[in-house]
Amino acid sequence: MGTHVDDATPAFVATRAEALRRLDAFLPRAGRAYAEARNTDGGPEAERSVSALSPYLRYRLLSEREVIAGALDRHGAEADKFVSEVLWRSYFKGCLELRPAIWARFLAERDAGRDAVRRSGGLARAVAAAEEGRTGIAGFDDWAQELAAFGYLHNHARMWFASIWIFTLRLPWALGADFFLRHLVDADPASNTLSWRWVAGLHTPGKTYLATPDNIARHTGGRFHPRGLATQATALVEAPLPAIRPLAPQPPVPPGRALLLLHPEDFGAERSIVPGVDVVGVLAATGGTDDWPWGAAARRFVESAAEDAAARAEGSQGGGADVTEGLGAEAVLAAAAAAGATTVVAPEAPVGPVSDALGDLAGPLTAAGMTLVRVRRPWDDALWRHATKGFFPFRERSRAVLGADGLGDG
């Protein structure tokens, strides 16, 4: 393979240096070339038409802002398609933050689906065949095996796969979303859950995504032309969601010595923490709870990324830096005491397991006379609040936000 293929291979190295190298390699193609070829999936061994930066964005070894800034600086308005694709991540994060009931519903439906699999031999066999790539459906089986092997799929393949899972195989959507979460390196509560809901007709009620043989053949270079796919996609339905929950106001960081607590929702916070905070120690956590990250691929990536984040933070903040499993109170309290910190400062974690773990951590810290402050990045604070409707209204509002952040008209 040539170097252009290596720059996008799914063998992700979990360091910021590698993230920056990959970004630099991709940026020449972030303009018109991306817009014209982004829907094409030539397979894992072909030159990629997309950036394959999602694992680095997901754990914030790269920030959305620096990726968008690089694309706009190189291509200007011709980078609009790529900029929009990056902003889908911010949009989905905001959607879930404003509507946490969506995540709770997914977990409930996933657990109900798992119970149904245990009770029904037929459903268990159908789910196993789908997950192992034994359905006989061209493309679908290949993507299942590619996901298991590499922990990554092209976004278009993810959409086709979800559509076939829901409308052709008629399997519970939450089990498909769970399958992705257990195998994707970039497994993300917001992007994954809401993408599956979008395909199923739940995100935009009544609007579904139907995978068709001709579309698959056209965008895979004729590699796959599956037969027997559903010809209709009837939207799934659910009870109305609760009212939107506004973003909580950002609490001030009290003066004094602070422990910087990094976690998988933001392994780059040492570059964006509140100015003036007296960071006297750093602790990087490799997960949120005992069962998260969900899959082996994500866990390996996160463990390496935590080591990298701790090393970088130690160099930039001074003081010691350690790595711990999970976000247990005992480890955090010990690190804070060793550093002589009275405050624990953590980057905000949006809805999901890490947020839950930080919530559980607040009580023990308070009991020990310490304060936990969750700091939301300005990027997130400015954009998440606009995820109240569909993506396109959000995208229009994002232009003013990007402009105010020095990124032109976005």
Describe it for me?
One of its GO terms (biological process) is response to light stimulus. Its cofactor is FAD. This is DNA photolyase FAD-binding protein. GO terms for molecular function: deoxyribodipyrimidine photo-lyase activity; DNA binding; FAD binding. Pfam families: FAD_binding_7 (PF03441). The protein has helices at about 5, 15-25, 30-35, 55-60, 65-75, 80-100, 100-120, 120-130, 140-150, 155-170, 175-185, 190-200, 215-220, 295-315, 330-340, 355-365, 380-385, 390-405; strands at about 255-260, 280-285, 320-325, 345, 370-375. The chain has about 400 residues and is of the alpha/beta class. α14 links the parallel β2 and β3 (about 320-325). The chain has 3 domains: about 5-100 and about 390-405, Alpha Horseshoe (Serine Threonine Protein Phosphatase 5, Tetratricopeptide repeat), CATH 1.25.40; about 100-220, DNA Cyclobutane Dipyrimidine Photolyase, subunit A, domain 3; about 255-375, Rossmann fold. A 5-stranded parallel beta sheet has the order 3-2-1-4-5. Mean pLDDT is about 95; it is low at about 1-10. The protein is about 50% helix and about 5% strand. α6 crosses α18 (about 390-405) and α10 crosses α12 (about 190-200). It is globular. The chain has 18 helices and 5 strands.
Question: In terms of topology, how is this protein built?
Answer:
Elements: H1 3-6, H2 16-26, H3 32-37, H4 54-58, H5 64-75, H6 80-98, H7 101-119, H8 121-132, H9 140-150, H10 155-168, H11 173-183, H12 189-200, H13 213-219, E1 257-262, E2 278-285, H14 296-317, E3 320-324, H15 329-339, E4 343-347, H16 353-367, E5 371-375, H17 378-383, H18 391-404
Parallel strand pairs: 1-2, 1-4, 2-3, 4-5
Helix pairs in contact: 5-6, 6-12, 6-18, 7-8, 7-11, 10-12, 11-12
Domain Cryptochrome/DNA photolyase FAD-binding: 82-209
Cofactor: FAD
Pfam families: FAD_binding_7
